[in-house]
Amino acid sequence: MPKQLKILVVDDTEPNLLLVSKFINKLGHQTVQARNGLEAVEKFSEESPDLVLMDVMMPEMDGYEATARIRELYPNKWVPIMFLTAKSHDADHVKGIQVGGDDYITKPVNLVILEARIKAVTRIAELQRQIVENAEQLEIYRDENERELELAKHLIQKITHYDYLEHHSIQLWNKPAQHFSGDIFLAALTPADEIHLLLADGTGHGLSAALNVIPVVEVFYGMTSKGFAISSIAQELNRKIKQLMPIERFVAATLVSINLSDRIMHVWNGGNPPALFVDEKGVVQRSWKSTHPALGIFSDAEFDAGTELFHWSEPGQLYMFSDGPIEAQNASGEEFGLERLTQVLASNPVEQRYEQLIAAIDSHMEGLPAHDDISIGLIRCPVNVPEDSPRQETDGTQQAILPTTDCPLRWKLSLRLTPSELKTIDVVPMLLAWMDQMHFNTNHRGQVFLIFTELFNNALDHGILEIDSSLKNGPDGLELYFEQRRLKLADLQHGILEIEIERLRQHHHENLRMRIKDNGNGFDYKSITSTNISDSTRPSGRGLALVKSLCSRLEFSGNGNEVTVYYTLA
């Protein structure tokens, strides 16, 4: 309130009106005069005074009614109203306060007391003014904050779902503790149509937790699209988060790679509750507990990107969780818990299991807000790959810029890999990334990735590491095979693998020639290449037969340690 107040003086007696007005002017304040209640209401509306001195007994409208009208017309604008009246009974005082008055002075007016009351009311009015100003400022801040939150929510939604794989076999339930969720669930396809999943849980909740997990999005989508294994993705995610975030802002994560055709999944769990593979009867066939620290804690040298492999023989569902579902509390502070969670999965039919789990968690919380973000990811894992299984789709917007058909790019790439490179480099995605830089047509990306992968793995596994494919036979064969692969690769001291890729024109067609040679003992390639790729029951041997079906030519040399294929581009 300014030092000079505007005071509305209301009195139907002219001497009183002039006396009080003159005294107020001497105090340094401005006066506005009204001679009845009706005029007082009009002047209040026109002049917006800082204080009202109101007589009670007046013609046309008395002071009580005028005060009540002012309070009714301006419910959100508080201006102190002080009654000046000869009525001195307690009932009169009570009525004055009930209609909206703030103070009561009896006539004849003691000017010293009036001055003191004006000063007291002025202090109250100043506090009220500050409260109103602060409230208005808070309202502005709130509106700005709401706009910024909506923008942030929109951007985070766009960023996390930019390349998200939408498919009916993949579901997510997310219940944020605040406006923003610090949990994200990402799904994408590799060039070979393997499904990559990531459930990440940033430290804390709200906007800070949501910002904490944004760095993982670009890395996950980018590396998945290039065909990197989830072990390489986990390594890069750890490096990125440790580089960008404070040490206390780590990210718990579950990474999964699923090959529906071979019924194989690889799982990396760092800091999240166990991921569960549940069969159609509700029995947990495999549980992946956290065997790694969360992302962003360890250095590159300390970080372990090793994954666990699982081969399913019966249809089931893979469930992934943040810690929110496990730690969801009821009014008594009791957590939902992993035991109750698995009981819900076991006691419901497969087609209702996911929805019943969500309903059980909601019921347990008894309508209380979540203390932490709650996320449950689900993917259905059939035995026979359905026709509508997720696959890469390419359209005109996804094409690389191609050279003209009159003058196509001609190039040749040669690599020689020793044990140190074979242990540390994800070779196939690296080759594909290089070809992308050469304006390689993305329509062929998936098939070329598959060909590269099969030829490279065949040369490494059988030529250099000398792993017997018969290990894959039997109930735990694939797990044993990949465990031996991991151990042998870690101990590898000798071995050379040569790769040569060339784009050339032969017989009026654009071709991609790929040659891979290892210095191993070779293998019986004749029996392998005669395998029918439709024989999905065989755990081994189908890869090369598939390569043969995709390429125009497949040729082995020597004792099987060198293979050359020709893939038709146009």
Automatic annotation (TrEMBL):
<keyword id="KW-0597">Phosphoprotein</keyword>
<dbReference type="InterPro" id="IPR001932">
    <property type="entry name" value="PPM-type_phosphatase-like_dom"/>
</dbReference>
<dbReference type="InterPro" id="IPR036890">
    <property type="entry name" value="HATPase_C_sf"/>
</dbReference>
<dbReference type="Pfam" id="PF00072">
    <property type="entry name" value="Response_reg"/>
</dbReference>
<dbReference type="Pfam" id="PF13581">
    <property type="entry name" value="HATPase_c_2"/>
</dbReference>
<keyword id="KW-0378">Hydrolase</keyword>
<dbReference type="GO" id="GO:0000160">
    <property type="term" value="P:phosphorelay signal transduction system"/>
</dbReference>
<dbReference type="InterPro" id="IPR001789">
    <property type="entry name" value="Sig_transdc_resp-reg_receiver"/>
</dbReference>
<dbReference type="InterPro" id="IPR036457">
    <property type="entry name" value="PPM-type-like_dom_sf"/>
</dbReference>
<protein>
    <submittedName>
        <fullName>Fused response regulator/phosphatase</fullName>
    </submittedName>
</protein>
<feature type="modified residue" description="4-aspartylphosphate">
    <location>
        <position position="55"/>
    </location>
</feature>
<dbReference type="GO" id="GO:0016791">
    <property type="term" value="F:phosphatase activity"/>
</dbReference>
<dbReference type="InterPro" id="IPR011006">
    <property type="entry name" value="CheY-like_superfamily"/>
</dbReference>
<feature type="domain" description="Response regulatory">
    <location>
        <begin position="6"/>
        <end position="122"/>
    </location>
</feature>
<dbReference type="InterPro" id="IPR052016">
    <property type="entry name" value="Bact_Sigma-Reg"/>
</dbReference>
<dbReference type="Pfam" id="PF07228">
    <property type="entry name" value="SpoIIE"/>
</dbReference>
<dbReference type="InterPro" id="IPR003594">
    <property type="entry name" value="HATPase_dom"/>
</dbReference>
